[in-house]
Amino acid sequence: MSARILTSWDAATARRLIAEDPVLNVFVGSRLDAGVLGAGAPGVLWGWPAEAPTALLHIGANLVPVVTDAEPLPAFVEAAGRRRTCQSIVGPSWFVMPLWRALGERWGRAYSQVREVRARQPVMAVSDGPKVAADPRVRPIAAVDFESYFAASVAMYTEEVGTDPLAGGDTSYRTYCRWLVDSGRAFGIVENGRVLFKSDVGAVSGPAAQIQGVWLDPSLRGRGLSEPAMAAVTEYVLADFQTACLYVNDFNTRAIRCYERVGFEQVGEFSTILF
C-alpha cells in the first residue's frame, strides 16, 4: 500500500491519529497546528495507507513518524525519496532505527552517512506538580535579556548538538530564539543582566507541551540548582497544559536524575539520527 501527501481535507484524520498519544506526537501535532496541511507551508505530512491513513510521516527540517506498528515503513521510505531534505530523523526508537537503516539501503549515502546516532533517548512526562520546591528566580525571559539569553542558547546548542548554530553566518537560529522570547516560551534565571539558567517550551499541541533547551551555566553545575529551576519551568508549563514532556539522551545521567527528582517519569523512548 502506498502513502500520499495529506491536505486540509485530512485534518480530522491527522488530529485523531496524533491524539492517540499526544506526548509522543507533540511535534507533529505542533506542525499540524502551524498549518502543515496548507498549500505553501514548510514541510509536508504524508499519510499511510493512502485510502484511510492510520500512520503519518512529517517531512521537513525533521523527519518524524506517527506510528503504532511497522507496516508503514516501506511506504515511508519511498515517500522520503532519494533527495534528503531533513536534518534529522526523530521518533520512537523501535521505528526510527529500522527506518533509518531502510532509507540507507534504498537511497544510499544521502541517508546512510550521518553525523551522529542517538539510539536511546528516554521520553519523560509529568502531569502533577513538581516534587521539589520551585526556584522563585525563574521567570519568562524579557526582551531586554535577549542577548545574554541568545549567548546561552548558542552555548546550549553547541554543547548538545555538537555544531555551532551560527556557522556560515546563518541567522535562522537567532530568529528562532527571538521568536521563543517574543512568544513567552523562554524561561530563565537572570542576575545582573546575565542568564544563568534557561529552558524553552518548544513544540506544543493539545494537552502537551515539550520542554527543550535546558542549560545551566557550567560554573554553577553540581550545586543542586537544576532541580528547583526545572520545577519552576514545569510549574509554568502546567499552568497552561495538562502535561509537560521532554526527551533526553540516555548518557546524560545527571539530567535524567534531575528530571526524575522533579517528578518526570519515562513514558517512551526516542531515537535521533543527525545528518
Would you give an account of this structure?
Helices cover 34% and strands 28% of the residues. The model has no long low-confidence stretch (mean pLDDT 97). It has a 12-stranded mixed beta sheet, with helices on both faces. It has helices at residues 11-19, 26-33, 73-80, 93-107, 109-112, 146-161, 172-182, 226-238, 253-262; strands spanning 4-5, 44-48, 55-59, 62-66, 88-92, 116-126, 139-140, 186-191, 194-205, 208-216, 243-247, 265-274. With 275 residues, it is an alpha+beta fold. The two termini are 29 Å apart. The radius of gyration is 19 Å and the shape is globular.
Overview features:
single chain, alpha+beta
Distance between the termini: 29 Å
Uncertain runs = none
Number of strands: 12
Largest sheet: 12 strands, mixed
What general outline do the C-alpha atoms trace? globular
Question: What is the H-and-E element order?
Answer: EHHEEEHEHHEEHHEEEHEHE
- Radius of gyration computed on alpha carbons: 19 Å
In short:
By secondary structure, the chain is of the alpha+beta class. The chain is built from nine helices and twelve strands.
